[in-house]
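[audit] Reproducing an earlier prediction to check determinism. Same input, same settings, fresh worker. If the tokens differ from the archived copy the diff job will pick it up downstream; this log only records the rerun itself.
[audit] input (153 residues):
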Amino acid sequence: MTLREFLVRAKVRGYAAEGERGETLLVDGGKGLSYREGPYEYRDRYYGVNPFIGEEVVWKGGKAVWAMNYLGAVIDEAVSPDGVYRFLQRAMRRVEEARPFRGPAVFSDGNLTYEDASTGDLEGFAGTERILRAGREIYRLTYHGGRVAADDA
């Protein structure tokens, strides 16, 4: 299994599947989700609700090999974060191997549209995801990350 294939599996089985129901409360006040398969282990930890900040890290054979940081918020005070985050989970279930950072480039359901634009690849990338309601932006998340070199010193 490649890192790209593992990331898709981990993301679909992480927040996209579990959301706030399946996370572990961490001793430092954060929340975490994890997934293991083969030689890989994935952990997603985040802090806050709206706004929130977090990181995802993948280990292979006990060494960190990939990481991503993110910061997001529902930016329209008239919108319930719960409904936005449920829609976000549906979009995240559609993560693609070509872009295994967040969700698909575009996903729509009713009057909500998810958009994700990124540059780069697994080695190094940055992007922004947005959710629009009837064409108006109500949520935004920025992220960046890439491969991590093992410290064998």
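[audit] rerun output stored. Observation attached for the diff report: Helices lie at 3-13, 15-18, 81-92.
[audit] end
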